[in-house]
Amino acid sequence: MSSLPESGSDGQSTVDPSQTTMPLPRYGRVIWILAGEASGDVIGARLMQALHAQDPSLVFAGVGGGRMEALGLHSLFPMSDLAVMGLVEVLPRLRHLSQRLLEAVQDIELRKPDLVVTIDSPGFSLRLLQKIERSGIKRVHYVAPQVWAWRESRVKEFPGLWDRLLCLLPFEPEWFAKRGLEGRFVGHPVLQSGVRQGNAQRFRLRHNIPANAPVVILMPGSRRSEAPRLLPVFRKMLDLLRVQYPDICPVIPVAPVIAPTIRQLIRKWPIQPHIVTDIHDKHDAFAAAQCALTKSGTSTLELAMGNVPMAVTYRVNPVTATIARRLIKVPHVAMVNLLAGREVVPELLQEDCTPKKLAEMVSKLLSDPQMVEKQRMAFADVLEMLAPPVGTPADAAAAEIMDLLNEPVSRSSSI
């Protein structure tokens, strides 16, 4: 599956002297895909496979991570350049992000793809879609912006940004419809994660972990701005926990791109966590785990798929937190809790994200079977809500994209 077109349909390229840039030659329809973080890379890779199954002649270009690159995508620039979160945290990188935005727009101008797909990362994705709004290129945004959670006023900026909006959560199409926008539910990619194929014994043997040692998953986030805030708290928490659980075994699953940063941050920890970068090893770790501490977001659904009892914790810049609290409109931040409509898993955020409180919560998860069972019963109900009407989420998303791709072009290009 190549991502760089090599020649035109007649084997030769043709240059239009009126163009300031020469379009790249091509042999099939081109889909330009953008993924801005690790979860988007996973979604993008599955989408590429599903699209290619429907049309093997498709050509892919754009920005992605290791999983998309393994399928032939030559990323325009490192996906990690876009993985930043927080209102304050993004400020020092604005100039660099603006440069990357310009590069993406210019690459689209050069390639003139048949369709552009942006996956999540709304801060970057929606600006890109706006820049190419008048291009005549069909546009799909995959993973609806979570404006139902905060900054609902942004909805007024959305009309015209995309031709199709693909939603992961079952309540989103109705929410957008009430505000004059169409959204299509395609199911949540977590259902294809393969978490349930994990093997606990294999993980313990591979990492030489004793059978009775409690395994605790720590998920500090995939963005470079997240881990430095949570990991120092996790270290102090482990110092407290090892008094009661001297053989406690922490495991940190991370994307390969962020692994060197994590290793550097934990190099002096008295208890050295196992760093897991392979997706299958991650699923084995979930199977072996007694509990987890995770940031909010998709990771809560992954852990629910693995039946891992958890607590959600998060810490950002205090200024970011103050602004966010004024804007957030939902009662919970954990996706599991939002879908259940109640607090299924505890949320220890900002001021509550302390070593002592986290240690107490982990101890409770390790010692309270009733609490664990209540979580697991709720997980099953939540996950049932996330299935598309037919097939897999990737197949459903690919079907929507192919449907749009095959529609006649109704706009004239101005790029």
TrEMBL record:
Keywords: Glycosyltransferase, Lipid A biosynthesis, Lipid biosynthesis, Lipid metabolism, Transferase
Top-level taxonomic group: Bacteria
Pfam families: LpxB (PF02684)
Keyword Aminoacyl-tRNA synthetase included in the entry's annotation: no
Cellular component terms (Gene Ontology): membrane
Associated pathway: Bacterial outer membrane biogenesis; LPS lipid A biosynthesis
Family label: Belongs to the LpxB family.
Protein name: Lipid-A-disaccharide synthase
Source species of the chain: Gluconobacter albidus
